[in-house]
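Hey everyone, long-time lurker, first post.

I ran two proteins through the pipeline my lab uses and got sequence/structure pairs for each. Pasting them in order. The first:
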Amino acid sequence: MSYRDITLTIDDPVAVLTLNRPERLNAFTYDTLREIRSAMDACAADRRVVGIVITGNGRGFCAGLDANTLAEVTAAPAPAREKVPDPLPGIFSYLLHVPKPIIAAVNGVAAGGGLILALMSDLRIASGNASFTTVFLKRGLIAEHGSSWLLPRMVGVGRALDLLWMSDRIDAAEAQRYGLVQSVVAHHQLLQTACDYVRRLAVTSSPAAIAETKRLLYRHLGTGYVEALQEADAVQWKFVTAPDAREGATALLEKRAPRFTRLGEGA
């Protein structure tokens, strides 16, 4: 399908989703959110895609909710609570359930909801131009969209509270020291580095095992160790006898790269 606020390019095995409102620092509207969700669903279903890279066009990654949209939201009456609440509320929380790796290639400022987009991605690679700020409390808001769950697990309780309360902007190097990003690279190398990570995964790792490992990891963040170990053991024995495990063993014996089954539909 065609998009207005984003672009989506697929170059097997990588899908690159680019936020494309550079004049607004890629701040999103409700239309943008719908387009991102549609693109993610398409990538999850596409057999060519092993991993997804999210980045921004221009000098911003994503400045969060567009100011005009924010003004409309805050001026409207409080919405009635749904009788059946969303089992996983919050923008971009569905990324945790996408069965393929999602890498945020943070090229510029990631603020508010834009920071949430980066945090809900599985890995974060930042350029030297990147910066990060929670910004919510400066707008009279709380730690929104799961940030109260995500940040303490990444940086610890005290640092998470400081980032949320003060809403100071931190640069890429400080974000790496905090544990918010996994690596910092030169700006011109950012997209290539993120895409190369997916290409390496496509050669070395089983897509089914990647997906199940992602599911287990996020699930076990909120699970006691007994239940977590029991579930991991059950899944482990299921995978030991699956075709990808046989292919992995055969490839090792034959001293070649494994040919694992892709996830999704199509050629």
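...and the second, right after it:
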Amino acid sequence: MASKDYNDKRDFNKTPEPRGGRQSNGDAPLFVIQKHDASSLHYDLRLEIDGTLKSWAVPKGPSMDPSEKRLAIPTEDHPLDYADFEGVIPEDQYGGGTVLVWDRGPFRNLTEKGGELQPIEEAWSKGHLLVELKGEKISGGYALHRTGSGEDANWLLIKMDDDQADARRNPVSTEPDSVLSGRSIEQIADEEKK
């Protein structure tokens, strides 16, 4: 989904969300996971691919347990500026609700085909990519796998069985606050009301 979809769904006179314009820093691509208290609480996984943030809504958030497969619903591409966005989206706007930066950091493409590293854009378009996240809360390998075809296809987010895997650890419930501001979702909502 193109960034045009992102712009078409928003009235920037009403929403504090960024319009875009930030360019890649040229270093390691970034990932961000945003906790989003909208009509239902979920987590938005975003990976910097081809100058934009490819995005998935993950209802239960990421898991550290390789035996758990988490539904990841694709959403529109977001501009790179969105990686730093925290605030309240008005209820009358697309995606209304409170957003915080739950985790972020660089990531590395691990997707191989025939023993060679496959470009991340190609892996994404084919619907199967392996990445190593280096976040403040979660790290290690994750697989994203498209489960169908067409625009309505969903994906699965699966923790790879590596040194960072830990079925006993659940940072979604034990580490709920922002890595950017240290605030909770409730604090952000309350501060925005003032």
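Reply from user beta_strand_b:
Welcome! Quick read of the second one: Residues 3-193 form one domain. The two ends are 35 Å apart (CA to CA).
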